[in-house]
Amino acid sequence: MNTSFFKKIIPLLLAILIAFGVHEGLFFVLKINTQNFIYSLPELYAWFTLFTLLVVFVLLLVKRKSLDNVGMSFLLVTSIKMVFCYLILRPILKVATLQNSAEKINFFALFILFLLIETLFTIRLVNEKQK
After folding, report:
1. Residues 32 and 102 sit within 8 Å (Cβ to Cβ)
2. What residues contact 36, with CB distance under 8 A and at least 6 apart?
């Protein structure tokens, strides 16, 4: 791995760390009880961070081979990621309680947050071609 890989990853990891802190703080301020959640917040962040790092790694590999295919690769890798996220989400969907609705909202908010991070990364990666 060269240093440009780490220069691209460090801001992503910092953004994820800040989002985690804000998320924990929000749960604390709103007094949301996460004890009955199927997946803890750190566990979900770990899964989504792993998925994001895999997406970024694949996109950087594709960029090295052909910058023109980065967008299509992003769509393909994101679709594959959605399948894995659905497999993680299935136990949450099976339980129908009021507490569980907060967990569902939490999961989808995290999914959208990480999708946004990956999309912004991809946009920056594709725009490097124009510089």
Report:
1. yes
2. 99
**DSSP states of the chain:** --HHHHHHHHHHHHHHHHHHHHHHHHHHHTT---TT-SS-HHHHHHHHHHHHHHHHHHHHHHHHH-GGGHHHHHHHHHHHHHHHHHHHHHHHHH--SHHHHHHHHHHHHHHHHHHHHHHHHHHHHHHGGG-
68-94: pLDDT as tens digits: 888 899 999 999 999 999 999 998 888
Query: Token pair for residue 63?
Result: 């960029």
Supply the pTM of this predicted model: 0.88
Lookup: tokens for 94: 């099976």
